[in-house]
Amino acid sequence: MQELNGIVIINKPKGFTSHDVVQKVKKIVKAKKIGHTGTLDPNATGVLPLLLNQGTKLSKYFINHDKEYEVTLKLGIKTDTLDAEGIVIEEKEIDWDKLESVEKVLSSLIGKQQQIPPMYSALKVKGKKLYEYARSGQTIERTPRNIEIYSIDLQEINKKQNEIKWKVACSKGTYIRSLCEDIATKLGTIGYMKELNRTKVGNFTLQRAISLEELEKNPEKIEEHIVTMQEIFKEFPNIYLEKNQINKFLNGVLLETEKQDGIYNIDTNEYIGLGIVKEKKLKRDIVMEK
Questions:
Q1: Are 48 and 215 in contact (CB under 8 A)?
Q2: Residues 82-93: what's their mean pLDDT?
């Protein structure tokens, strides 16, 4: 198999950490370098973009991606981790007739707001992950973060199982477990995140994903799922370089241009990579090596 450069979307199965998936795919496709663009909890499933080989250079462009999820909220039970992995710390009888309107509560969450990260999260405070404090019985003061809920739509209410299924589109940094807790509180009860399926990260969707099971059976199939750098940045405008400009650009020399400030695909007779124009100067950003 030739060296693969770009991004592959993995449909992460339940029970695997993001690191587990990285190591597994690295072994299957014999990648020299591999990384992911954002952790997905072990209990969660869905879209996990992996950067392969030269694709790892692209990581800075994927840190602020919006995301979409399908969520199952279990009402009447609260866990210490706010998800299905935790220990049950409280239980309540559910009387649906006394709860607030689910549709009304969900719609009230749309918009910009602040959210306090949960103690059981990988966010670092003073060099230590919050869940490490939590596991030792400590509660640390956390700074609220600015997030935005773009849309939130009810999919199903299962009164027999005391479960609500809903879809949400949100900004980077949104903790869905905390959102579940907020929804349960607004309804007038308690709850935890039972299931989480990430359906979209930026423009990457499940439709372009491959499962670990499928990849293990047929490693060559990964080639059908590679998203190249050229495809990822196809919406950016192009700058064509003449032959005498190429080496200068590759060696980091600033080139004069009349183009407006912004990010550009650099083209000759073949795709080179990305350049950035600032104050009428073009400089090298990311170059795909031969």
A1: no
A2: 95
Tens of pLDDT along 1-14?
567 888 999 999 99
What is the identity of the amino acid at 189?
T
How many CB atoms lie under 10 A from the CB of residue 208?
Answer: 17
pTM comes to 0.90
In this prediction, residue 290 carries a pLDDT of 65
Extract long-range pairs of 208-211: CB within 8 Å, 24+ residues apart.
208/9, 209/9, 209/10, 209/11, 209/46, 209/47, 210/8, 210/9, 210/10, 210/11, 211/10, 211/11, 211/13
Ordered by where they begin, the domains of the chain are: 6-65+203-228 (3.30.2350.10), 73-192 (3.30.2350.10), 233-287 (2.30.130.60)
> Which active-site residues does the annotation give?
41
Q: Judge whether 199 and 46 are in contact, CB under 8 Å.
A: yes
Contact 234, 15 (CB under 8 A): no
Q: Which of 23, 31, 6, 48 is nearest to 211 (CA)?
A: 48
Mean pLDDT of 209-226: 91
Confidence class for position 151, pLDDT limits 50, 70, 90:
very high
Q: Are strands 88-91 and 281-287 parallel, antiparallel or unpaired?
A: unpaired
Cα 74 from chain centroid (whole Å)? 23
